[in-house]
Amino acid sequence: MKCPRCVQRIHRAAQSCPHCGFALADADAHFGEDEVRLRSLTDAAGLLRRGGRRKVEAAMEEIGRRFPQIFVAVYTGPLGEVANIRQFGFWMLNRAAFEDVPVGKPNEAGVLFTIDPESKAAGVTFGYLLDPYLDESDTFECLSRAHSHWLDGRYADGLVKAVRHLGIILAKRSRQARRDPEKFERKVLPPPQMGDLVRRIRSGHRVPEEQPEVEEVEK
Amino acid sequence: MKALTFLSLAIFSTVHAANLQMPIWKDGERKSFEEAGGILRSFILSDEPEPEPETPLDVEKPKADEVTSDPLRSSEIPEKFLAAYFAEKPAEFLVDPQGLLSPKDYKDRLGFLKYHAGDSSIDFYVYVFGGEQEIPGEVRAEETVERLFTTGRPAVVVFYFLGAPQRSAIHLSPSLTEAVSAADQRRALQSSVMSAFEKLNTTDQLDAFSVQMSIRIYWMERMLGGGVSPDGIPIVSHRPAAKKVAAPSVLEVWKEETVIWMEEWWGGAALLLGSGLLALSFVAWMRSRVRFRFPDLEVEPRLGGAHAAGVGAVISFANAALPPASQKDQVPDYLRRA
Fold first, then answer.
1. Distant-in-sequence, close-in-space partners of B240: CB < 8 Å, separation ≥ 6
2. How far apart are CA B302 and CA B300, in angstroms?
3. Domains plus CATH for chain A?
4. Is pLDDT at B241 greater than 50 in this prediction?
5. Please, what is the average pLDDT of chain B?
6. Taking CB atoms and an 8 Å limit, are B317 and A130 in contact across chains?
7. CB contact under 8 A, B311 and A89
8. ipTM value
9. How many Cβ atoms are within 10 Å of B20's Cβ, its own excluded?
10. Taking the model in full, what pTM does it have?
11. Are B313 and A88 in contact (CB under 8 A)?
């Protein structure tokens, strides 16, 4: 888990980045704090032609069909700076209302691909549902598949490749989660409280024994 | 010095050996030795070898007419059989009016020739003669074959001499004579004779000869058909095909074998292929119906985001010289080298 602004590691349940103090409020100040209504495939930059758009939509629908809990969204548009693409993705997935996504699929279940044609950068953001199952390297693999296409300006082909590879990774993670759910549960356990830590240090990291119940003796 | 010594010794030995004589029996010594059970037989010591005891054989000598009537030994074909041999086209593929083959052997050989005829467009006729028999001079073999086999299917006619395969002669029907070169005919005959000589029994020799000639006829047929179709050989033809004899190419042989294989195994192959396609379709259908689900785990919100805080990777495609591999380690911008 990394901060969208400083890309430093942050702990679970951090209300703001402990390194740079970033929070959604900062993104709201930059991009706006109102809800944004848009479709799951929004080509604001006009990168996709009709045929390409259809192919990308088909790939997105395929993910939605195979993974009934999940949806994929794509946004293309100029963002100004490369550094902003992470913050924009983070803000978008929290503030957007995707009109064509079923109500049963909240933004927690979304995977957002963002492409900035000006800075020629692309990023991935995903909701809390996939937080235990996806990591940065998985999303990097997806983007790597699209890299050569995007270099040639074939945005639709690159997106299709990236989305299909995402499907492969998600299927793998789903099977792993079915086999060994505890592995993923451990990733989202709440961080230990300070008091617990102090107690564990004082007890020498030993598990405290249960106090025997004192039986009342009738006098 | 040494050489002189050896020379003198050699001369002495030679003179001494010349003076030596074989021992001779003294009076009564031989008789007493034999009476004492001596192991030496008398013939060893006698000057003349002991004659072998004669045991008269109780077998009658063959009569003169019996010797002459053996067709395998006689040198002339009896006149009464000439018409059966050469008067008209034979009704069967095996011509043996003299009955040189036993009925069983005749039936077996005839069965094989019939099988060949069913499998090939060139018939194979075998005239059987005795090993030492001579075809009369007035019978001109080539003319006879040409006359008898002008019509009908192309045929290879072999005059086979039982027990003497090397005397065999091959003749072709008019439709084949110009199409098959003399060299090819000779090679076919030699090959068949060689196969016959691998057997000892006369019937087995004929058997081996027939099989090899049948194979050779098959190759003649392939050559005539240009390796495409044996049906190209004319059944009735007074003008033999002027096609040049050419060996079938590897590709043509492969094609033909594939066609034969397909004809023989198409049912099984089709079934196998169909089953495979069906299985593949079923697997693809099953895979398309698979739905993946994730356990919905409780995740505490971060950075004030109600729905998402999963910031994944970012990739730049501004420069082809900056491959994805060099962008894998994503560190804060202020930690990057300028």
1. B174, B175, B176, B177, B178, B179, B234
2. 7
3. 24-183 (3.10.310.50)
4. no
5. 77
6. no
7. yes
8. 0.82
9. 6
10. 0.49
11. no
Interface contact B312-A134, CB threshold 8 A: yes
- Give the minimum alpha-carbon distance from A29 to chain B in angstroms, rounded to a whole number: 13
In this predicted model, what pLDDT tens digit does every residue of B159-208 receive, in sequence order? 999 888 998 999 988 888 878 888 888 889 998 999 898 888 888 899 99
| Cβ-Cβ contacts under 8 Å for B262 (sequence gap 6 or more) | B269
Q: Are strands B169-172 and B308-316 parallel, antiparallel or unpaired?
A: unpaired
| A vs B: CB pairs below 8 A | 180
Q: What residues of A are in contact with residue B329 (Cβ under 8 Å)?
A: none
Beta carbons within 8 Å of B68's beta carbon, 6+ residues apart:
B74
CB contact under 8 A, A147 and B323: yes
Q: Which residues of A touch B322 (CB under 8 A)?
A: none
Structure tokens given for B47 = 């000057």
Instruction: Look at residues B110, B107, B105, B108 and name the one whose alpha carbon lies nearest to residue B93.
Output: B110
What single letter denotes the amino acid at residue A198? V
CB B313 within 8 A of CB A124: yes
Helix/strand/coil for A128? helix
Nearest-Cα distance to chain B for A21, in Å, is 9
- Comparing alpha-carbon positions, the chain A residue that sits nearest to B334 is A6
| Strand pairing category for A96-98 and A71-76 | unpaired
Closest by Cβ to A86, choosing from B292, B299, B311: B311
Specify the length of chain B in residues. 338
Closest chain B C-alpha to A60 CA, distance in angstroms: 15
User: Which residues in chain A have their CB less than 8 angstroms from residue B305's CB?
Assistant: 24, 90, 93-94
pLDDT in tens, A76-134: 998 876 558 889 999 999 999 999 999 889 999 999 999 999 989 999 999 999 999 99
Domains and CATH numbers, chain B: 79-232 (3.10.310.50)
Pairing label, strands A121-127, A110-116: antiparallel
